[in-house]
Write a structure and sequence with these properties.
The chain has about 120 residues and is mainly alpha-helical. The protein has five helices and no strands. It is elongated, with a radius of gyration of 20 Å.
Length: about 120
């Protein structure tokens, strides 16, 4: 006759799990809509030259959606890889190293993508 609360005690804190779960679901919903826009963009630009594609990205609405797509995609991937590392990497040193590499790669990818989108959109 053990109380369920007694079984749960001592298994660590549950402070950030809800945020992680919600962030992953929200980015997934964003990606569904943004993937639809991306499919439209790819079909609209099929066979177009570089100048037409650049003009398409230079429109503020399209540039903003492209930036949102890139940020959501990298953040969603970072959250997913974090779960994989937590579930399957059991050595603390390896887990810390992989967490760092995944986060650094995601933030670097976001920064590079956003800067390049802005360069294309602003025509610099």
């Amino acid at each position: 006759m053990t109380n369920p609360l007694a079984r749960a005690r001592g298994h660590g804190s549950a402070k950030s799990g809800v945020h992680h779960w919600l962030a992953q679901r929200v980015t997934a919903v964003f990606l569904v809509f943004l993937a639809g826009w991306l499919a439209y963009a790819v079909l609209a630009l099929a066979g177009a030259d570089f100048a037409t594609a650049r003009a398409f990205v230079a429109r503020p609405f399209n540039a903003a959606l492209l930036v949102l797509l890139v940020i959501s995609m990298f953040y969603h991937a970072m959250l997913g890889l974090q779960v994989v590392i937590e579930d399957y990497v059991h050595r603390p040193a390896a887990a810390i190293t992989l967490h760092f590499l995944v986060r650094a790669g995601a933030w670097l990818g976001m920064a590079l993508a956003v800067v390049n989108i802005l360069i294309i959109a602003l025509g610099a």
